[in-house]
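Figure S4 source data
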Amino acid sequence: MARGRFALAAALLLLSASARGAGADAPAQAWDLLSEEQLSLHHKAVAHWGSGMYETAAREFDRLLEARPAPAMAVVNLGMMRLSQRKYEEALPHLERAAVLMPDSPRVLYLLGKCLLGLERGDDAVARLTRAGRLDPREPAIPLRLAEAHAQAGREDSAQAELRRVLELRPDHGAALVRLGRMLERLGRGREGAALLERFARLGKRRAREAERCAYESPLDPPVSGPAGGGGRWLAVRAVGLERGARAVVTVQAGRLILRRRAGAKPVRFGLGGKSEADVVRVDWADGTHTHRVGVPADREVLVEQVSAHIW
């Protein structure tokens, strides 16, 4: 039970961090500039991406980018999606465009640095990631990528310093523990390296994975408008996880109406007002995976199971 509460808290923390990142990168006023139709299309594009339907999502993002001016959020998300597929050449122009539209966004600079790393342009990556770190010194994924860039260039002292920075920010970060431990063993500091690897072994995969989550690798989403919605038409969502008693967070998106509530043992009810359907129903599970349903008609109960869950 305690472990389940810890996992749910971690999921909620990630959602909160993601919301903070979205607020910094795309303030509510920017989302307000999108029409109801554009918001619905954006919801569906992100859901199709999250379900592994990459080309469907790309067509929907491309339709959004036909607008003048193009929504910066869609530019970022399309670049991020291609980056998640490791299609670095395709991701780069979108992320470079995003950096022009949002020059002070640590998220965009981080993603651009990660893309440049994939293209083995280490020095360019270091420049973007260093600036991202100045803008957001609390995000451990930034020094983790800097460590990769320095290691790629053979600068092991700098890579080691960045990995230690990751562990200062998040002591249970599994990837940093393993990479620094192996690096120290290779450098002849076997005892210190073995101690870090032992720390990793004691964590367990779930706890280490939770510590590695990065809000900057989740899509930009518009802010939540409320927990339950208004009267009129409705939707009830029953979320069933793989683990008995595991809880989750349910988000319902219908144009400008964006609702979020914790799931419980009983179905969670949302008021859709006059809307005939939800664009997307998303369930974020405690282990970091998520499940999407697209185009869900109103006035019914929907079962969402974790069996088909994905991770960004």
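Figure S5 source data
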Amino acid sequence: MAEKLQIRSESSELLRDQLLCLQRNLSVVETGAGPLDFRHFDWAWPLTTVPLAAVIYEQGREVTNCTNTYLQTIGFPNGFDSVQDLRKNRTYIPLVRIPTSSAEIIEQLNSHFSNLVFSYIDFAGNFRNAWSYTVGEMLDNISQHSQSSSGWLLAQYWPTREFLDLVILDRGLGFRKVYEKAYQERYTDREALKAALKGRSVKKDKERGYGIRTTKNLITGAELSGKFLMISGNSAYYADSDRELWLDLGGWQWKGAIIVCRVKRATKPVDIYRYVEG
């Protein structure tokens, strides 16, 4: 009988600590063949949970002792994959497996996420559609460019901490291979992330692709003072209102792309207009 592999949680709200926890747990999953024991997974952040679920689902791994009621509520590890499962909830959107062929699911996800955000953030003016565009752009990137059969999403608002975490990811080509395929040029993972952040479109007939850059600028702008993290291959980029960092992931890699947005509860109206380009 194969030995159970221990999966452990991280209580810290710091994205850096959560990323380290994710790397440790995925190393356990990827190097061991036994059942995954979740008895010590007491605290579930979107960053520590969604990528783990995607890999477990992809590999068809056995999960044991998953008694955390929150994990059960959000549908871990298989997630939900139908519009009917997207029940309105005040503080979260459950773990959703997004079929890239389903425009209906993508549209519903965008609508539910926008409703959740607008429950806590007072956006100035009539710019709800602009915010929906930025989230929709990230979902569209999965369906149009990743060549993955599905993407994953989880959003959670923490009332006592007054911020909302969103994770959207896929297990597809990743930014480097997408750019290499589009332009027939060699990229490193970091170069590909830089191209995305500069707004370089992967569509040759479109000069700029503003979705990721607009989202990063909005999240980290002065009004929201949020945090933005993007991971693909062996490179990661972090930004907040004060700094930008390129993170060394060592020998660890993510197949596809992960985007993390942390939005604080706004204390004043947010004028989204000045962040939207194109």
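The chain is about 35% helix and 25% strand. The domain at 79-275 is CATH 3.30.565.10 (Heat Shock Protein 90).
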